[in-house]
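Residues pack. One example:


***
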Amino acid sequence: MHITETAAVLLKVGVPALTALETARDTSTNPYVQNIVEQTCLQMQDGKSIAWSLAEYGRFEEMYIRMIAAGEESGHLAEMLEALNGHLRKQLLNRLDGLIVLLEPALILMVALLVGITVIATLMPMYGLMDLAGGL
């Protein structure tokens, strides 16, 4: 996501695509993604398009590849990368929302369990004392 955002900004201000990708590569902390972008830059130097290079890996959704290809062909790669970044951001937020929905019941059960244990730990000594007092 950082790569698309950085590349879009750099392309908008007039940085050449190859330089923009090389710079954007360093914004990723994932070595696998950095390697893919580096290989894409090398293939760009050989005259291949960004979309074609990324499609070779088979790790990206076809829609992303088509958006990049359309941006390259139309000369509006920066705008397409911004749109792609927005889509990726929405997709990430949707996944996080789904994860939170799954975690809420688990957290409620954990709190209920802790409250139940606390109640039992408080009542057990009281019942023990009542048994001792009743036996006198």
About this structure: The chain has a mean pLDDT of 90. The chain has six helices and no strands.
